[in-house]
């Protein structure tokens, strides 16, 4: 034999109740089917209670022909029902609250299933007994209902109560869908709205940097609305829900568990997914078979994040669950203190209530034995020495009730509302014409008016409802840890206070948390500074590759979305983590600069030495016959040519840039003008021997000076015009090499620059032409040959300089120009003066007039 409740919960209840019948022309209420309450007590005002005292692991098929196996008794829900009984008795004994009035109750079992909850709601509406209620007239004896636990059941019950305008206060239905006051106008609850829970869960995932999580939910309103809210809260964060699994519970839950364990968890954890954190929105009854098959797969190491529906379920507190569920973290509803609950539960035994079949089921669930004989079960008779079964050991622990405390507050909310209704003063009521309710004929909708405005304090906690029927949001953060006895203990490790300012709601004591083994759950490892995230095509944003930043760009944060470009004067370091000042390059006094400086100084010293030699031997024939004055001018100008190379070395400034090309061009123009003058003198001297040719009178010292002055003056005019119109200036070249700043001198006017070089080339070309024409004139020392060769070298150097200069940037261009200056200067010095020095110093016997004109005796 099975108990009536167990037998009922085993059958499909869809056609169980017919509430109102119309027979002939008479209207009367008749109970068409019996659905016995679990507990019932008489009172002036009736409260209904609906609790999931049983739950089924398998739901029946829709054809109503399948009979499922016996249901399971839930001691946890039974404790909630006892809490309601205790609270009603406590209020009835309170002389200050509802004096001269008593509350009654009628508690039914919903079997944790919506259709059974529907029948429980209809049964509680039928009245306390069948007698005495033949005609439906006057106010309903039922003022309010305390229930239901699951959101799916509460939706069904609330819709049934809506036409009757009977308020319903839920102690465990947290679905956000109930905030719709048009659909659920009579719904209240003392548990926070799931919008706050999903907000807290989102903050928890972000806090621990779990960017890749799995998600499992049941196919009911609680799961659907919770998932929608969580996904909404996670928008704009770094958290991705990579694996979402939804499953209908119409079919066998065993099949569901096999599907989830083999498909979801194997794929989610073992094979390809890197999600080590799984968020579960599920009820306690749904989790039981799921975890059974999960444990059979021997999968460990998952960091479970539990919803408030099962995070404090005592059925999972046994030591057998710890290897698989240890470290679970989640949000539990607020605890409270219920005076006398522990003693009251201790007194509720089958021996005190022998006629209540639930007592026998409770004892069988707690101790695994039958309290009385004969028993409907096959369990042995209790001896009195049994201990609580491990899976229900927490049933007797009433030190910090959570859901039971919500039941306690819900009953008190009805009592305080009813008490406030009785305190109404005529003419100051909330109803039409400021009227009050009739104390002898109170309608449920009148009580709802006071429920909406009720505000009271219980155990130091303020209880009230907002316009949507929600209560103050508050959660404890629960962590599943191994206790001293090996069982799982639900340890508070923080809290979430929804009344605090944004960003301050979550408080976590991380040092007290015990983890399941994985504190990180990511699809891709974080990108270190110096790289950026590149989202993989077709995948969520949490799955990405780390791409090093390009040159000139940096990222100094972990998981940067993009690399930031360095300012113009900065460049990225080798790690691409910081911008450092760009390296500044110019022709400095480093290796190249020092070499050029030494060569320049040596060239100038050699030129001065030659000048000293020439000055000392100025009266010798070789110097006098080759126009000593022009030779001194050439040596002085060559000295300046060597020294002007120093202006090209060092950091460019406005003055150095203007001096570089102007000094160089004027000194070289002076030098070439002197050589040109000497060439003209040589050519005129040798042609003057012809009869009738008196060309030398036009090339005297004054004329020679005039030629040099005028030739040089042209170059000076070009340079002055250049400096006035567009002078050379310092320039920061960042285009040639982006990682460096090359300091160079901009020409200002390219036309002027090439005019300067062109004029020098014109002078050199004219000089070469005249010297070439005089190369075959008689004499042992024909200086025209020397001038021809020296100018040839000069032109070759500068012709090679032009392409090298154009293709060389910055300091390399300055080095090329300096090298050209030195090479051409050395070419002129060596070709023009070394042969004369050789004769002066080493062959003095050839330093005679006869030898030089070729008339000495052989």
Can you summarize this structure?
This protein is of the alpha/beta class and 858 residues long. The radius of gyration is 53 Å and the shape is rod-shaped.
What does this structure look like?
With 858 residues, the protein is of the alpha/beta class. The chain folds into 4 domains: 4-191 and 401-458, Response regulator (Rossmann fold, 3-Layer(aba) Sandwich), CATH 3.40.50.2300; 194-336 and 473-512, Rossmann fold, CATH 3.40.50; 531-581, no CATH class; 591-707 and 762-853, Rhopdopsin 7-helix transmembrane proteins (Up-down Bundle), CATH 1.20.1070. A hairpin with a 5-residue loop joins strand 18 (474-482) and strand 19 (488-497). Helix 12 (403-422) crosses helix 13 (444-453). The radius of gyration is 53 Å and the shape is rod-shaped. It starts with a helix and ends in a 5-residue tail after the last helix.
Helix proportion: 40-55%
Radius of gyration: 53 Å
Q: Major sheet: size, sense and barrel closure?
A: 8 strands, mixed
Structural class: alpha/beta
* Number of helices, where a helix is a run of at least 4 consecutive DSSP H or I residues: 22
Strand content: 15-25%
List the domain count as a whole number: 4
Number-wise, the strands total 29
The CATH homologous superfamily of the largest domain is termed Response regulator
- How confident is the prediction overall: mean pLDDT? 80
Low-pLDDT regions:
1-27, 61-66, 247-272
């Amino acid at each position: 034999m099975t108990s009536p409740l167990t037998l009922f919960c085993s059958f499909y209840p869809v056609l169980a109740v017919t509430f109102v019948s119309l027979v002939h022309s008479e209207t009367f209420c008749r109970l068409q089917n019996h659905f016995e309450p679990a507990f019932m007590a008489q009172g002036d005002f009736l409260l209904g209670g609906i609790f999931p005292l049983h739950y089924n692991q398998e739901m029946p098929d829709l054809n109503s022909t399948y009979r499922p196996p016996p249901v399971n008794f839930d001691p946890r829900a039974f404790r909630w029902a006892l809490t309601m009984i205790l609270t009603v008795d406590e209020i009835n004994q309170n002389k200050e609250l509802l004096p001269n009035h008593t509350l009654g109750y009628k508690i039914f079992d919903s079997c944790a299933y919506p259709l059974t909850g529907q029948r429980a709601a209809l049964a509680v509406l039928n009245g306390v007994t069948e007698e005495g209620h033949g005609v439906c007239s006057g106010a309903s004896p039922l003022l309010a209902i305390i229930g239901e636990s699951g959101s799916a059941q509460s939706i069904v019950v609330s819709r049934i109560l809506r036409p009757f305008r009977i308020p319903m206060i839920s102690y465990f239905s947290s679905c956000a869908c109930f905030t719709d006051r048009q659909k659920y106008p009579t719904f209240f609850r003392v548990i926070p709205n799931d919008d706050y829970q999903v907000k807290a869960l989102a903050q928890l995932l972000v806090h621990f940097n779990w960017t890749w999580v799995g998600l499992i939910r049941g196919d009911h309103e609680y799961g659907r609305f919770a998932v929608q809210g969580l996904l909404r809260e996670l928008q704009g964060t770094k958290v991705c829900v990579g694996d979402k699994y939804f499953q209908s519970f119409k079919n066998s839950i065993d099949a569901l568990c096999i599907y989830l364990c083999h498909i979801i968890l194997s794929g989610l954890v073992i094979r390809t997914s890197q999600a080590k954190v799984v968020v579960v929105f599920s009820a306690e009854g749904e989790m039981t078979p799921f975890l059974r098959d999960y444990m059979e797969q021997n999968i460990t190491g998952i960091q479970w994040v539990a919803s408030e529906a099962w995070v404090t379920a005592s059925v999972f507190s046994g030591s057998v669950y710890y290897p698989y569920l240890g470290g679970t973290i989640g949000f539990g509803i607020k605890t409270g203190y219920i005076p006398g609950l522990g003693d009251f539960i201790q007194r509720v035994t089958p021996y005190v209530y022998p006629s209540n079949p639930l007592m026998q089921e409770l004892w069988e669930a707690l101790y695994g034995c039958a309290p009385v004989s004969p028993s409907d079960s096959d369990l042995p008779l209790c001896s009195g020495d049994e201990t609580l079964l491990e899976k229900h050991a927490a049933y007797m622990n009433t030190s910090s009730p959570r859901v039971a405390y919500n039941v306690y507050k819900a009953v008190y909310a009805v009592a305080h509302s009813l008490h406030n209704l009785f305190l109404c003063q005529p003419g100051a009521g909330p109803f039409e014409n400021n009227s009050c309710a009739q104390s002898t004929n109170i309608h449920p909708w009148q009580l709802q008016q006071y429920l909406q405005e009720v505000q009271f304090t219980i155990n130091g906690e303020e209880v009230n409802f907002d316009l949507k029927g929600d209560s103050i949001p508050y959660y404890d953060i629960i962590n599943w840890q191994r206790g001293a006895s090996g069982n799982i203990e639900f340890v508070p490790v923080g809290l979430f206070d929804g009344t605090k300012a944004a960003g301050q709601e979550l408080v976590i004591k991380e040092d007290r948390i015990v983890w399941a083994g994985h504190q990180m759950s990511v699809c891709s490892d974080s990108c270190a500074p110096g790289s950026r995230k590149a989202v993989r095509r077709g995948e969520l944003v949490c799955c990405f590759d780390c791409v090093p930043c390009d040159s000139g760009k940096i990222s100094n944060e972990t998981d940067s979305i993009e690399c930031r470009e360095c300012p113009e004067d900065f460049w990225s370091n080798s790690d691409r983590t910081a911008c450092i000042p760009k390296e500044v390059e110019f022709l400095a006094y480093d290796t190249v600069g020092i070499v050029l400086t030494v060569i320049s100084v040596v060239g100038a010293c050699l030129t001065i030495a030659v000048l000293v030699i020439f000055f000392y031997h100025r009266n010798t024939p070789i110097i006098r016959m080759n126009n000593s004055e022009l030779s001194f001018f050439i040596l002085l100008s060559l000295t300046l040519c060597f020294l002007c190379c120093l202006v090209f070395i060092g950091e460019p400034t406005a003055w150095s840039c203007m001096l570089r090309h102007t000094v160089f061009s004027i000194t070289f123009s002076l030098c070439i003008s002197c050589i040109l003058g000497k060439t003209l003198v040589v050519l005129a001297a040798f042609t003057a021997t012809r009869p009738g040719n008196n060309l030398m009178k036009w090339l005297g010292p004054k004329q020679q000076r005039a030629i040099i002055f005028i030739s040089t003056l042209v170059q000076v005019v070009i340079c002055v015009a250049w400096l006035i119109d567009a002078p050379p200036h310092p320039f920061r070249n960042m285009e040639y090499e982006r990682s460096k700043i090359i300091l160079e001198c901009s020409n200002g006017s390219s036309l002027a620059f090439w005019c300067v070089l062109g004029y020098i080339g014109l002078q050199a070309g004219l000089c070469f032409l005249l010297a070439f024409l005089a190369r075959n004139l008689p004499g042992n020392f024909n200086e025209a040959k020397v001038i021809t060769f020296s100018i040839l070298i000069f032109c070759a150097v500068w012709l090679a300089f032009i392409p090298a200069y154009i293709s060389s940037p910055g300091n390399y261009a300055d080095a090329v120009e300096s090298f050209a200056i030195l090479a051409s200067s050395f070419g002129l010095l060596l070709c023009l003066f070394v042969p004369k020095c050789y004769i002066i110093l080493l062959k003095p016997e050839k330093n005679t007039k006869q030898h030089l004109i070729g008339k000495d005796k052989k």
